[in-house]
Write a structure and sequence with these properties.
The protein has about 850 residues and is of the alpha+beta class. The strands form four sheets. It has a nine-stranded mixed beta sheet with strand order 16-15-14-13-12-11-24-25-26, with helices on one face.
């Protein structure tokens, strides 16, 4: 976790003559004037986030409260004036956040971005440095490209006919190749496809459009070839963003040249905050181990560098005030160099405040410094208030300061000092090391206990393994951090002297990586959890804040600890209890070109029909798992795999990481497909001890009041491609039925049409709505009331004829309707769409 650069709490301004940075009587944080202002600013931002207030209303409220505050100050009613002032700050926070997020110019590019992509030619300036991500080899991907480049483009003009028209706004530019020779500040012309960013397609899913809107980006521009991006004018070399980008690029080049490939990627992420060289699997390993903070740029990195620099400056006999100025400037520059992320900016602001107290020789109230850092981060980007990294950074520092600092000894016992001096030197060193080890683990445990509920709420993980791994991982990465900076400093002037530091960086990072592998291999060390109730988290952290800052509660800490354990037990009880709903639900998730239907029985069991997508195995983490967590699912009882096409099963390995899976059911030919993707999934199933069952036409399964009839394939599967052998299930609950078809087509479809027509209320359109599979014969045979088509955004052009209209069926696609839920209960069969908000009752 991020550590605090500040010294023990200093006196309030009322304690005159206190030397800056010297311990002084501890004061309550509520006596710090910036604390209520920071809380008020946060309240205004949160209010506008969850209940947007019109911009003019916030400005009007700001003016009224400021006038009221001025009037009460004139009347010497300071208490009431503070209340009005805080209300005014809250109104200012709401207006500031609303203005950045919601207000756009009349010529903004957002008005031209639609759900349907269309070709445009835009001119603008690169607002961020282009970042290239290499494609990672993955047996579970149907297509592996050559990587892609991303940047934010601030558009200024759009070509229309033979002329140019003025436009404004930010778009996210994605190029399907590496974009070489371009940097932030360059003026470019881009020809690509403009579209609106997708929103949340499934309950509990990630809202990409909302994420981009926090960054004031409201449109996407996709380009296949780098040649479609033309340089018009090179940016000025004196701009700060461009200079920082060039330094970062140079640093990455030097690290990649001096270190092995694996350690180079880790070093670039550790020193420069650029994780593009690391694969998603690398990031997942560090996240699962609970020590992601040692790799992502955080306040801990700045503390280590500041301490190293301070010791070096003092060794050079530089005056304290001059040294403080150098440290402050260095930390601020480094925080900006690594991207200006909230944890780094928090540490930089707090360090600058402390250094300022040394330079000005003024006492510093630490609570004021903490509040100042929060205000600075919120002003730089108010959406960072909702950023998990920002929240964790400030929470860890608060716990380090207001909890663990109370462990410090106030006065040493003379007898203990005498006993200590009488010991041999080697014994004193061993005892010192033991105390440091004990303190580091004690601090790690306390911080872990404090941040775990927030980590569970934000990342759905509990990482017990992070406790034993934390201190050695911090030590190894701190060595790599300091050695890496020495390497970068010496490389351009004394390259031979830089080599030992390269060995030190490589060795420490290799050891850290091996330690992470060891921790991740122990599966009980981390586990996934579902959604954490907001009311539970809010009450937990309100109690934690009170226990840290209110003296009567601090003095009765055993009672507070007991209350915390009780509250945790209540949260676990709520999470573990998932009563049956009494109805059957089938939700067809919007996963693009792929498939996943989630079936929930009246008694609380969960089944999946397929879990995959053409876009890759990330479909599980982006769509399937969030939905299951949203529904309170803790165990997947069974997964039915329709057939051995990647877009129907490549999400299984990721599903196994997040949930206990009872068993997997497949067709007779699935295990004999003979490709490396099937072999990869089967190995994953064996490693998690998940049994595999084979079903054939004529089998009948039942669970929780649901009956599954297997209609296809037979034991002797038909000839043709894998689609023709898709598993066809007729799922019945009471008088209602759903027919799941996978990618059924060809000879398999012909065989199914020879069977006696069952009653079908809802039909899953086979093969994602393909005209070859969705024939008039199938429409007449099934005669469904509703046809659900799992599909991605269809390509532009003429649409195929709808064969289901002739039999009175209504067709719904997961694009654009989003997740489609069918509920079967005593009231009938209800159909609901998530994005379009449609809802109706089927009566047949």
């Amino acid at each position: 976790m991020a550590t605090n650069l500040l010294p023990p709490a200093t006196s309030t301004p009322a304690v005159r003559g206190a030397a800056p940075g010297r311990p002084a009587p501890r004061a309550s944080i509520w006596h710090a004037p910036l604390v209520p202002l920071a809380l008020a600013l946060t309240a205004g931002i949160v209010l506008d986030r969850h209940a947007p207030v019109p911009f003019w209303v916030s400005l009007l409220a700001l003016g009224v409260f400021l006038i009221a505050a001025a009037a009460t100050i004139a009347a010497r009613q300071t208490g009431l004036a503070l209340v009005y002032l805080c209300c005014g700050v809250a109104a200012a926070g709401a207006a500031y956040y609303h203005g950045r997020r919601e207000l756009v110019a009349d010529d903004d590019i957002v008005y031209q971005a639609t759900d349907e992509p269309w070709p445009v030619q835009l001119r603008g300036v690169l607002d961020t440095e282009p970042v290239y991500s290499r494609a990672q080899a993955d047996p579970l991907r149907s297509f592996t490209g050559g990587g892609s480049t991303r940047a934010v483009l601030r558009v200024t003009q759009r070509r229309r006919g033979d002329g140019l028209v003025q436009v404004s706004g930010l778009v996210q530019l994605t190029v399907g190749e590496e974009l070489k020779g371009l940097h932030v500040g360059d003026r470019v012309e881009v020809a690509g496809m403009l579209t609106a960013p997708p929103g949340r397609a499934n309950p509990g899913g990630f809202d990409y459009a909302d994420f981009l809107q926090d960054q004031q980006v409201r449109a996407l521009l996709t380009v296949r070839r780098a040649a479609a991006v033309k340089l018009l004018e090179t940016g000025t070399p004196w701009s700060v963003p461009r200079a920082l980008a060039l330094v970062r690029a140079w640093g990455r080049q030097e690290l990649e040249k001096a270190l092995p490939e694996k350690q180079a990627g880790l070093a670039v992420a550790l020193l420069l905050g650029d994780g593009s060289a690391l694969s998603r699997e690398d990031w997942n390993r560090y996240q699962r181990s609970g020590v992601l903070h040692v790799l992502a740029i955080s306040g801990q990195h700045l503390v280590v560098l500041a301490g190293f620099l301070w010791v070096g400056l003092r060794a050079c006999r530089l005056r304290q005030r001059h040294g403080a100025l150098v440290v402050a400037l260095f930390l601020l520059t480094y925080a900006l160099l690594t991207g200006g992320r909230p944890p780094a900016m928090r540490s930089a602001v707090m360090a600058c405040a402390f250094c300022g107290s040394l330079i000005l020789r003024k006492p510093l109230l630490s609570a004021n410094c903490f509040a100042l850092a929060w205000i600075a981060v919120a002003v730089l980007d108010p959406s960072d208030v909702f950023n998990a990294g920002c929240q964790l950074s400030f929470l860890a520092v608060a716990v380090l300061y207001w909890v663990t600092r109370s462990w410090e000894k106030k006065d040493a016992d003379p007898l203990e000092e005498l006993i200590e001096e009488s010991r041999p030197a080697w014994q004193r060193r061993l005892l010192w090391l033991w105390r440091q080890l004990w303190v580091s683990y004690a601090v790690t445990i306390v911080v872990w206990l404090a941040v775990t509920p927030l980590v569970a709420a934000q990342f759905h993980m509990v990482q017990f393994i992070g406790v034993p791994l934390g201190p050695p991982a911090v030590l190894l990465t701190s060595i790599a951090l300091v050695a890496g900076f020495c390497l970068l400093l010496l490389a351009p002037i004394l390259a031979p002297l830089a080599q030992p530091f390269a060995w030190l960086v490589s060795g420490s990072l290799a050891a850290c990586d091996a330690l992470i592998d060891l921790g991740v291999s122990w599966r009980p060390g981390s586990w996934y959890v579902g959604d954490v109730p907001v009311w539970w988290s809010a009450a937990f952290y309100a109690g934690l804040l009170a226990s840290m800052t209110l003296l009567p509660l601090r003095q009765r800490w055993p009672w507070g600890l007991l209350a915390g354990v009780g509250w945790l037990a209540l949260g676990l009880a709520v999470a573990l209890v998932r009563p049956g709903s009494g109805e059957f639900r089938c939700t067809f998730l919007a996963v693009g070109h792929g498939g996943c239907a989630v079936l929930e029985t009246p008694d609380g069991r969960t089944f999946l029909y397929d879990a995959g997508a053409l876009a890759g195995p990330d479909v599980t983490r982006r769509h399937i798992v969030p939905y299951l967590w949203h529904r309170g699912v803790r165990r997947v009882d069974e997964v039915f795999l329709s057939h051995a096409d990647l877009d129907h099963y490549n999400g299984i390995p990721a599903l196994l990481e997040c949930f206990q899976v009872g068993q997997v059911t497949c067709t007779p030919t699935f295990q004999h497909r003979g490709n490396r993707a099937v072999a990869f999934v089967l190995r994953a199933l064996r490693s998690h001890a998940v049994p595999v069952r084979v079903v054939r036409a004529g089998d009948r399964l039942s669970a929780g009041g649901i009956v599954f009839d297997v209609l296809h394939p037979p034991a002797a599967s038909p000839e043709g491609n894998e689609n023709s052998r898709s598993l066809v299930l007729l799922v019945r609950h009471g008088d209602h039925s759903i027919l799941l078809t996978g990618d059924l087509e060809g000879l398999g479809l012909e065989r199914v049409l020879t069977l006696a027509p069952p009653r079908v209320d809802v039909l899953q359109a086979p093969h994602h709505g393909s005209s070859k599979a969705n024939t008039p014969e199938l429409a007449r045979w099934a005669s469904p009331a509703i046809v659900v088509c799992p599909q991605k955004r269809p390509r532009a052009g003429p649409r195929p004829r709808d064969p289901y209209r002739a039999v009175g069926s209504r067709v719904l696609g997961t694009w654009p309707h989003g997740a489609i839920t069918v509920r079967s209960g005593s009231a009938g069969l209800t159909v609901e769409t998530f994005v379009s908000g449609l809802k109706w009752l089927i009566r047949r």
